[in-house]
Amino acid sequence: MLFSSVVFLFTFLPLTILLYYLAPRKARNAVLLAASLIFYAWGEPVYIFLMLLSIMFNYFSGIDLARNEGRKEEQKKSLIITVIVNLLILGFFKYYGFLVENMNAVLPVQIPVRKLELPIGISFYTFQTLSYIIDVYRGKVNVLINPIDFGTYVTMFPQLIAGPIVRYADVEEQLRKRRENIYKFGQGARLFIVGLAKKVLLANTVGAVYTEAAAQAQTSVLTAWIGCIAYTFQIYYDFSGYSDMALGLGKMFGFEFLQNFRYPYIARSVTDFWRRWHISLGNWFREYVYIPLGGNRVSIARHIMNLMIVWILTGLWHGASWNFVVWGLYYGVILIIEKYVTGKLLAKLPEVIGVLYCMFLVMIGWVLFAGPGLKEAVVYLGRMFGAGAAGIVDRQALYLIKSNWLLWIFLVAGSTPAVHRLGQVLLWDEEREAVAPVAVLYLGMFLVSVVYLVTESYNPFLYFRF
Amino acid sequence: MTTSKKETVRDRKERQEEQQIQQEPKKVKGQQKRADLLGILRYGTVGILLVYIIVLMAVKGDGNTSFTEAEAAVEGAVNTTKMTKGSGRDLKRLYRLNAGDYENVLLYYTRETMGVEEVLLIHVRSENDTEAVKAAIEKRRQIQFENFEGYGAEQVSLLDSSIIKTKGRYVLFVVSPDAERIEKAFDHVV
Fold first, then answer.
1. Are residues B185 and B102 in the same domain?
2. ipTM
3. Residues of B with CB under 8 A from a CB of A
């Protein structure tokens, strides 16, 4: 089920909220768990069993780790088994086909491929359970004995299928005891509406521009750049919109999840960009891969290796395809260069130059990311720099600029803190928010989004496939 | 009296220690039992998981049907004399779908102004995408209905008997007098 779907907005969500708030406090996690299972089963009736089995295994493993506390060897063995089983499940569903296809291509073998569908959200919930297991082992969190609470943590529908990756340590307290109130609910609803509007009004609309530009057999250099810019905005508004909706829904049920995006397109360097983009994924890799590998407290050569390992894994996390591997490597190399060569220079550059430098590299990265394969990405990149392009400017490019000029303004402004600041100026009356304009604004955004949802059939979520 | 009292206290202490020693193996045994049960539950879950995956592979596995095979089978059944092979741009124009979002796409559409014949085969990346593709196809079919309703009885009849079919990660849409033949060819390989 999509957040941006009529059935979710007008049936599933109102019913869940009603049942949740009617239920006694002690039963609220059970309501959330049941709702989350229905939410997941709606689109993945078969894979609900995979998720349930994964929950059971990790629940028992957590208890096993806690039981072996003080017995280092046994505990370590238990941890290794649990991590391996989790990674095997993820690896099988996500990378098996990719691995076999590559083996067939490289080796003199012909292993039959019997690919299975990628279970939605598997990368997200596997990483969440791993954070729990590793933190129980490290003694950072207490083992969760209540299976309902554990199931709620893993399946919580607001962040189940496209993140953010919520570490158990961040919600340990909230799972047991959290405060819901009307103010928080209102804040959550507003955040949800902002996310919905970002997704439906901006991401989908600019996505259509990208589709139009990418579908051309022959394009000018300018059209190729417009397509690239359109995808750059589409993926930002798509994913950050989804994260806003997830955070908003979390608040509506009393949870506080950590922010996943912090205006990434105003970053002054690529290092800065990755502190602002998909923050929960970056934090996960830093906490559970980079630091255990030694982080930066090692020799330069080892540090470079650590960074490359993390970035290859980050690329692979996004998908089983060579373009994701190259995309990860691309960022690994840039971050190493920024760390050891250009970092100090970048810090001294004027802000505008830093932002332009970062956006240029990020956009090139998105071409590698958008795929559908490495070959297509290289061809597209070639067009952006004149190779195989039909001239510098064509009618198509001018049409895409002229017919969407207002959209471009919204897209640029919305990706900076300017809109937020403007909102504060216009919607705040001295120390209080002006209720009527706020209500009109948010209700308006919601209604327009719903109208778009009903009339438009193109409504994908780019991060679902990860 | 004092000696006997002291002895009693010592006796009690000794008795308690003896009891503790006797209970210790029971406690260890209890823990052992719980550990065994936990192990059974843990590895039992892994066992069920393996069986589940094997069953999934048997029932839902995509098999070895490559797009090339599916494409060849469908193309072989389509009478393409009055049709044009569509590009990504045509897919966008007719269905508002982006070819880049899918593994592979095969599109044929009529060259005739008053024709409605169309064949679309899409191999999606994830089964989750099939719903969006089907929705786009439904929309296209609805538009065609509206275009021809009232004056194009033959076209409306073809649209009525059109086929929208999903199998694994394949979505097939056929508007053609040969719809059944095309569907059979598709079923044969996918």
1. yes
2. 0.77
3. 34-35, 38-39, 41-42, 45-46, 48-49, 52-53, 56-57, 60-64, 87-89, 91-92, 96-103, 125-129, 131-132, 135-136, 138-139, 168-169
What is the tally of structural domains in chain B?
A: 2
Q: What is the pTM assigned to this prediction?
A: 0.77
- Same domain? B173 vs B83: yes
Residues of chain B with C-beta less than 8 angstroms from the C-beta of A67: 34-35, 38
List, for residues A145-180, the tens digit of each pLDDT value: 999 999 999 999 888 877 789 999 999 999 988 989
Final residue of a domain: which of B16, B45, B61? B61
| Full residue range of the structural domain in which residue B53 is found | 1-61
Q: Give the end of a domain, one of B46, B61, B76.
A: B61
As given in the structure block, the two tokens for residue A126 are 């596997």
The three-class DSSP label of residue A320 is coil
Residues B88 and B174 in one domain: yes
Tell me how long chain A is: 466
Same domain membership, residue B180 and residue B92: yes
- For residue B94, the distance in angstroms to the closest alpha carbon of chain A comes to 12
Q: Distance between CA A445 and CA A443 in Å, rounded? A: 5
The pair of structure tokens assigned to A254 is 């009393």
- Say whether both B57 and B78 belong to one domain: no
Label residues A88-104 b or e (16+ Cβ within 10 Å = b).
ebbbebbbbbbebeeee
How far apart CA B151 and CA A325 sit, in angstroms, is: 55
**pLDDT less than 70: residues of chain A:** 43-44, 113-115, 215, 217, 372, 430, 456-466
DSSP A113: P
The pLDDT tens digits for B29-87 are 566 666 678 888 999 999 999 999 888 887 766 555 567 778 878 888 888 778 888 88
Q: Are residues B38 and B122 in the same domain?
A: no
B93 and B182: one domain?
yes
B104: pLDDT confidence band, cut at 50, 70 and 90? Answer: confident
DSSP for A68-84, written as a single string: TTT-HHHHHHHHHHHHH
Mean pLDDT within B127-151: 84
Instruction: Judge if B132 and B106 occupy the same domain.
Output: yes
Q: Exposure of A80 by Cβ count < 10 A (0-12 exposed, 13-18 middle, 19+ buried)?
A: exposed
Confidence (pLDDT) at B2 = 46
Alpha helices in A198-263 (DSSP H): 204-214, 221-252
